Amino acid sequence: MMGYTEAPLAWGHARGMARTVGVSLTDAVVQGWLSRAELAGMVEVCGRCPHLGECTDWLARTVTAPGLPGFCPNARAIGALMA
After folding, report:
1. Taking a C-beta distance cutoff of 8 angstroms, is the pair 48, 13 a contact?
2. N or C terminus: fewer CB in 10 A for the chain?
3. What confidence score (pLDDT) does residue 1 get?
4. Half-sphere exposure of residue 56, counting CA atoms within 13 Å on the CB side?
5. What are the tens digits of pLDDT across the range 2-47?
């Protein structure tokens, strides 16, 4: 299992956003759709995101979604991994 012990909140948000649209970031790396460096970059983007509160609230209310909210800076990267 992958995780980012130095940035658990950012990892949780990145993973949570991906899960709402049916994407497993871990599986994407294992299957070669996403490199570890790309995943680390996504986690870093989450860690610097100014929309932490909005993200937390959205994730708390959303189990599944057809797409990610416009405020998500990783929406495009995660969207590219959608089946």
Report:
1. no
2. N
3. 41
4. 8
5. 556 667 889 999 999 999 999 999 999 999 999 999 999 999 999 9
Name the residue with tokens 């759709």: 33
- Alpha carbon of 81 to those of 33, 49, 62, 73, 74: distances in Å? 7, 20, 19, 15, 11
Cβ(46)–Cβ(12) below 8 Å: no
Contacts of 11 by beta carbon, 8 Å cutoff, 6+ apart:
3, 4, 43, 46
3-class secondary structure per residue, 8-68: HHHHHHHHHHHHHCCCCHHHHHHCCCCCHHHHHHHHHHHHHCCCHHHHHHHHHHCCCCCCC
